Amino acid sequence: MDAGHQHPISSEISRIGFAADQRLAAIGLLICLAGVRISEGRLLTDVDRARRIARTPSFRVGSLINDPKTLKIRDLGELFRLTTGNVRPRSILRHGDFAPYWKVSYPGRSGKAFEAFEAYRANRKLARMGRSERLLITALEPELGPHHPADIVMTIARGEIIKEFQLKTGAKATIEALDDSRYSGMTFVTPRDSLEEIRTDLKKAKVKAARRGPPLSNKWQKIDRALSEGRLTDEIVPGLRTRSRGQIGRIAERYTRELYEAVSERMAKYAPEPLKQAMSSVLSGEKGSKRLVLVPLKTVRRALAVADFVFIGYQTHSDVQRYRKGELGGEVLAAKSVLRVGELAVAILLLSPDPGTKLIEDHATLLVDSATCMSA
């Protein structure tokens, strides 16, 4: 850069006394951050575009569902995997140990686990009772699509939707959902301890209103009506109360750990050789041992990109086969294809030169707890 036209960032860095190599590192870091922001913006654009494309028919109460997929899944573990999604190889490389992965994925996976477990339990009870009603998870049904406003719908024998449910794990999220117009007419289901929390707060609000004179606020009046009308409950099927938040979290963690370990083992067995070498040192260790694995950042980045290409190709092939069999709608297939274009862009970025990373760090240090990876 010409000295007479020095960039403001460089001038500021020089002013505070950075050395030449430190200036380059700082500028490289800024370039990296800018690139991340650009890639994030592109991905967000792809997601928004996919959501606009995925305009599925409005299957609401009174509509018919043909050949529901939820009822074909007999195994709870498989139902959990399909509802929550599998663990991505890139997540395993990013986090190493299961504990940090679970910390960041817990909110989303526990909510989806709530849907899977309660639908599974309710369907088993309805079958034992000889009832014709069944619960379907909307995210698994091709006809309903991934953006149906309800989480679960209840159908009768001929496949007609007779009721819609919105499931929320937290008390605050449940209260906020009552005001959301997208969920109009639905029944709100929450864990038993969240419902008790809402009832306790409602009781306090009533006592406060009676003591001080002002009427109950609109918020608490709406909650009171929803409770008295049975639209806010901890039962999908009468007599079958939901689990508590703690129980849901523990069950979700158990099944997520199984998925995490299974994907880790497949990566070690089938991944490209550089990635296989990195993973084998973790999976071959003794239980309870911790080892420090140094993996060249370029090697990890390239192996991750190749693994991502393979994974995206497999998913695309699987979706095309489901589309040909009529299990997946054309709009949903188009939406997934758009999302995968964004994923491919990320994989390409992983293969591209990254000067900022080279300036900052030549190697990535991955601290992996082999006991977590080896325990069943």
From the alpha carbons, calculate the radius of gyration and give it in angstroms.
Answer: 25 Å
What global shape is seen? globular
Low-confidence spans = 12-57, 282-296, 354-376
Supply the helix-strand structural class.
alpha/beta
In percent, how helical is the residue content? 55-70%
Distance from first to last alpha carbon: 57 Å
Strand segment tally: 9
How do the helices and strands line up, and which of them pair or pack?
Elements: H1 8-15, H2 20-53, H3 76-84, H4 89-95, H5 98-128, E1 134-137, E2 152-155, E3 161-167, H6 171-178, E4 187-189, H7 192-212, H8 218-228, E5 232-233, E6 235-237, E7 240-241, H9 245-270, H10 273-283, E8 290-296, H11 297-324, H12 330-351, H13 355-360, E9 363-369, H14 370-374
Parallel strand pairs: 3-4, 4-5
Antiparallel strand pairs: 1-2, 2-3, 6-7, 8-9
Overview of the molecule:
The protein has helices spanning 8-15, 20-53, 76-84, 89-95, 98-128, 171-178, 192-212, 218-228, 245-270, 273-283, 297-324, 330-351, 355-360, 370-374; strands spanning 134-137, 152-155, 161-167, 187-189, 232-233, 235-237, 240-241, 290-296, 363-369. With 376 residues, the chain is α/β, with parallel strands linked by helices. The model is unreliable at 12-57, 282-296 and 354-376 (pLDDT under 50). Helix content is 60%, strand content 10%. Strand 3, helix 6 and strand 4 (187-189) form a beta-alpha-beta unit. It is globular, with a radius of gyration of 25 Å. Helix 1 (8-15) crosses helix 2, helix 2 runs antiparallel to helix 12 and helix 10 (273-283) crosses helix 11 (297-324). The protein has a five-stranded mixed sheet.
